[in-house]
Amino acid sequence: xxxxxxxxxxKQYGKDTKALSDVNFSVKEGEFVxxxxxSGAGKSTLLRCINRMIDASSGEIMFDGENVCTLGNRxxxxxxxxxxxxxxxxxxxxxxxxxxxxxxxxxxxxSTFAGVFGIYNQQEKEKxxxxxxxxxxxxxxxxxxxxxxxxxxxxxxxxxxLIQGPKMLLCDExxxxxxxxxxxxxxxxxxxxxxxxxxxxxVNLHQVDVALRYSDRIIGVNKGSVIxxxxxxxxxxxx
Length: 239
Ligand code: ADP
Ligand code: ADP
Known about the structure:
single chain; alpha/beta; 6-stranded mixed sheet; 4-stranded antiparallel sheet; 9 helices; 10 strands; globular; binds adenosine-5'-diphosphate; transport; Phosphonate ABC transporter ATPase
């Protein structure tokens, strides 16, 4: 079934930057979709509209049966627990340990009394430990984020996104700052998360070869418009 559907989504920044023009596509539950395109194509804008970090200028974004564009604050919070974000620069809190970053990432948690003081219940702590171990970070659990390698930081980012139990991960250039070896580890984890847990992945990439290797489907974006939408095989045939 369809999890995400974009209908005529456009985004304009200020007066003259049209970052997205009439974008239409839908993503099925469990699909692994890569969005490829050159720098400035609108990939990051697209992801940020989907989880409402920014507002689309027009169009409709349906996620899990709801129009994302019209949600109020309380429903927005709920939406963001269903959509995990992964960033190019990880967005970890440097002075906190790996596990604190995972627990700290829980939306809404920081606003509670316990959260402010970094007190977590045992069940949450165990879930965080399981996630970190599953991502191969068993030795890094109590290391500070700023002492981890890039690939390790990104795995903490993945654990932080997963602890909320999301239906979908939005990954904005998750491997753009990593060497080939770490990139492979991250992509393998994302692929595994989608194929074995069934979490839908929407991944911005600028490396076509990586998109071809990992995706069920590839969406090509240029100058704010979708210029390709098909399987890796279809993309190879076209080029
Ligand atoms: P990509 O992720 O594919 O590199 P972006 O979505 O970051 O593309 O950018 C698409 C276009 O929108 C670019 O022309 C960029 O300069 C512009 N843009 C992105 N963010 C902003 C912003 N906050 N304000 C104004 N223009 C922006
Ligand atoms: P602090 O408690 O130190 O002020 P912040 O809330 O400023 O921490 O978070 C630091 C960084 O981590 C920011 O870049 C923020 O965007 C990012 N961050 C915090 N929580 C999340 C989350 N749930 N998902 C993604 N990034 C997050």
